[in-house]
Design brief:
Elements lengths: L1 H23 L16 E5 L2 E2 L3 E3 L5 E2 L1 H12 L7 E5 L5 H7 L4 E2 L7 H4 L2 E10 L1 E6 L14 E5 L3 H10 L4 E5 L2 H10 L4 E5 H8 L8 E3 L7 E8 L3 H16 L2 H10 L18
Parallel strand pairs: 1-5, 1-6, 9-10, 9-11
Antiparallel strand pairs: 2-3, 3-4, 6-13, 7-13, 8-11, 8-12
Helix pairs in contact: 2-8, 2-9
Bound molecules: glutamic acid.
Glutamic acid binds next to helix 5 and strand 11.
Length: 280
């Protein structure tokens, strides 16, 4: 009984706090003109991708995208404690920006012509490549081996689209909402392979719980130029973020971030891309 009362009381406090926050802010994703004055900025990342964007058991966030987002936010005038990270799954990213749910997105978000119809991008800030993850004893070694096999990727990703368009149109493609679900499927045997960026797959393969179970095929099936997604038409913000990314590379913070986040997975990252230059 006592516990229930306490829970009800804390729920009431939370509700009050939520109302106060909602009333205090005029913009949905940042609160105003004076960033140093204590406003918040909402930033979209992935929550389930080790090495890139991962929500940790203590509620904090870690990964290369998190470090890029934190650096960019700082250049825009927001300290780390002023960032509110919001999960933006692959299929939700364009809509999250269009609705104004987040100010910008750093979530393994490839710059593509199709997406540029709906959103704008700063960057690129990383070049990755599509690859396959299979069980250590698998005989799948190339894209065409996937035809007729159960393959997992994620709704709204370039990875799923590329499978259908070119890599293995006859694969039995299962689309889940996040890569962590694909990896669980690979472990249980529900799927024979997972496909997405090598940067993402390397992070999963290196997790303690999967050590020794999976291998990357090592195929560079595509070029994925990661950009920072912003609302279409916000050229002012695009310029500021491009300047932030340029500075991040120049002052060594980019290098520190790739080493810290990709080193443990032994992911062989490409050199820092040139801002505004897309590798086709
Ligand atoms: N980089 C690819 C994309 O933007 C795959 C990774 C992802 O789904 O986030 O679609």
């Amino acid at each position: 009984m006592k516990l229930r009362k306490a829970a009800a009381a804390s729920a009431a406090v939370l509700a009050l706090a939520a109302t106060a926050t909602a009333c205090g802010s005029s913009d949905k994703n940042d609160s105003g003109s004076s960033p140093s004055g204590g406003g918040k900025i909402k930033v979209g990342i992935k929550f389930d991708q080790p090495g890139l964007g991962l929500k940790q058991p203590d509620g904090s966030f870690a990964g290369f995208d998190v470090d890029v987002a934190t650096y960019v936010a700082k250049q825009l005038g927001y300290n780390p404690d002023q960032i509110e990270f919001v999960e933006t799954k692959s299929a939700d990213r364009e809509n999250a920006l269009a609705r104004g749910d987040v100010k910008f997105i750093a979530a393994t978000y490839s710059i593509t012509d199709e997406r540029k119809q709906k959103v704008d991008f700063a960057g690129p800030y990383l070049l990755a490549h599509q690859d396959l993850l299979v069980k250590t004893d698998s005989d799948i070694t190339k894209g065409t081996d996937l035809n007729g096999k159960k393959l997992c990727s994620v709704t709204g990703s370039t990875s799923a689209q590329n499978v259908k368009d070119s890599i293995a149109p006859k694969a039995n493609l299962r689309k889940y909402s996040g890569y962590s679900e694909c990896i669980a499927g690979l472990q249980s045997g529900a799927v024979d392979a997972v496909t997405t960026d090598d940067s993402i797959l390397a992070g999963f393969a290196a997790q303690d719980k999967y050590k020794g179970q999976f291998k990357l095929a090592g195929l560079k099936l595509s070029n994925e130029n990661y950009g920072v997604g912003i609302k279409k038409g916000d050229t002012e913000l695009e310029k500021k973020i491009n300047a932030a990314l340029t500075k991040m590379v120049a002052d060594g913070a980019w290098k520190t971030a790739v080493e810290k986040n990709f080193g443990p997975a032994k992911y062989k990252y490409e050199p820092a891309p040139k801002i505004g230059v897309i590798v086709k």
